[in-house]
Design goal:
Number of domains: 1
Order of helices and strands: HHHHHHHHH
Structural class: mainly alpha
Helix content: over 70%
Number of helices: 9
Strand content: under 5%
Length: 251
């Protein structure tokens, strides 16, 4: 089984056996109908629901001009994301709250970059959708497979980028220095391309984890957690595509 240091993805890959409902004869009674096995429809519907909350939240953030909520939304999204990643659980409330918080972040980020490069937000949405569709097609046709080696590459890239971003943040806030990782220059473009490649691969890992849940017979309530993993990756992917397109406008 491919391994990863991303807690949400790792849990998606390993929780399937742990949450599978008991067999009908295991306890002398059939499982409750409410705890039926997960289906592909469950995953699709829940993912669309989470994406719907994300999109509505983003539109409301822009329409109502609630920029003052951007920082609290970032902190809330980070906290909920870490909590769900480290302590996975089935159910909708926390996942939908996460989507609402991230929607505010995406709305404000889109407004910011769209002011610098008009129309880039729409292009980023289309670009992210195309990448998602392309990776799903590649996964379903087995043109690209989730392997331990490729997963280690993606995890290593993500961890390296995280270290670079933290170093850039410390250098900028602590010393007033600019490492050139987010200024639109050549290094910034390379960083965004690497991030997009890693996020795209994590979509494959998300698809693989969904298949494992389906094969395990896990409770349908875990569809919310599968949706969380996919949407978390899509948020990261969209932000990187948005940045890259804005950089290319400056050239």
């Amino acid at each position: 089984m491919p391994t990863t240091s991303n807690p949400a993805i790792r849990n998606l890959l390993t929780l399937d056996g742990a949450v599978a409902p008991a067999a009908p004869g295991a306890s002398g009674a059939a499982p409750a109908a409410a705890d039926r096995p997960i289906t592909l429809d469950d995953i699709v519907v829940k993912t669309l629901a989470v994406l719907g909350v994300l999109v509505v939240s983003a539109f409301l953030a822009v329409f109502l001009d609630v920029g003052f909520l951007a920082l609290p939304a970032v902190l809330a999204g980070l906290g909920l994301g870490l909590h769900l990643s480290l302590r996975p659980r089935p159910g909708a409330p926390l996942v939908l709250l996460y989507a609402a918080a991230q929607g505010i972040v995406l709305g404000e980020a889109t407004r910011f970059f769209d002011a610098l490069a008009p129309g880039v937000g729409t292009q980023a949405v289309i670009g992210t959708g195309c990448i998602f569709a392309g990776m799903l097609a590649a996964y379903r046709t087995r043109l690209v497979r989730v392997s331990a080696k490729a997963t280690r590459w993606a995890v290593g890239t993500a961890c390296g980028l995280l270290v670079l971003f933290l170093a850039d943040l410390v250098a900028s806030w602590g010393f007033g220095a600019d490492l050139g990782l987010r200024d639109g220059g050549g290094p910034a473009i390379v960083v965004s391309l690497l991030a997009i490649a890693a996020a795209s691969y994590f979509l494959l890992v998300g698809f693989e984890s969904a298949d494992r849940f389906l094969q395990s017979g896990a409770s349908h309530r875990w569809a919310w957690y599968v949706a969380f993993g996919l949407v978390m990756t899509l948020v990261w992917l969209y932000l990187e595509v948005l940045r890259l397109l804005s950089y290319l406008r400056w050239w």
